[in-house]
UniProtKB/TrEMBL annotation:
The gene is folB. Gene3D superfamilies: 3.30.1130.10. Residues 4-117 form the Dihydroneopterin aldolase/epimerase domain. It comes from Methylobacterium crusticola. This is 7,8-dihydroneopterin aldolase. The keyword Heme does not apply.
Length: 121
């Protein structure tokens, strides 16, 4: 299966369990791997035969910045579900949410979750 990849789309949002995270906000990075057949788009050189990575990125950005989630798992799940609903050509999607500023009392570069969802039926 072919893939459209979006690497580390930066968003500033207010997700988290702690009150400070919801008040101050922080940076998150969204990465997506959309799986679909790109053969027709490649042969015809026609955007109508694919999923626009700009549209996929815009959908993800809107979800991350216009809604609030306590868990980055919920953010990833919502992006995956809404992408599959919005783009019928997608067979599957993997969404990774990186949270570099996670409030953990340890030295680390960040935390991340990754979910993969496939179209049913």
């Amino acid at each position: 299966m072919d893939r459209i990849l979006i690497h580390r789309l930066a968003v500033f949002a207010h997700h988290g369990v702690l009150p400070e995270e919801n008040t101050l906000g922080q940076r998150f990075y969204l990465s997506l791997e959309a799986r679909l057949d790109l053969g027709e788009a490649g042969r015809r050189d026609d955007i109508a035969a694919t999923v626009s990575y700009a549209d996929l990125a815009a959908l993800s950005h809107a979800i991350a910045t216009q809604r609030r989630f306590r868990l980055i798992e919920a953010l990833a799940e919502t992006i995956a579900a809404e992408a599959l609903a919005a783009f019928p050509a997608l067979a599957a999607i993997t969404v990774r949410v990186d949270k570099p500023g996670a409030p953990v009392p340890l030295v680390l570069d960040g935390v991340a979750v990754e979910v993969t969802r496939t179209r049913r039926g």
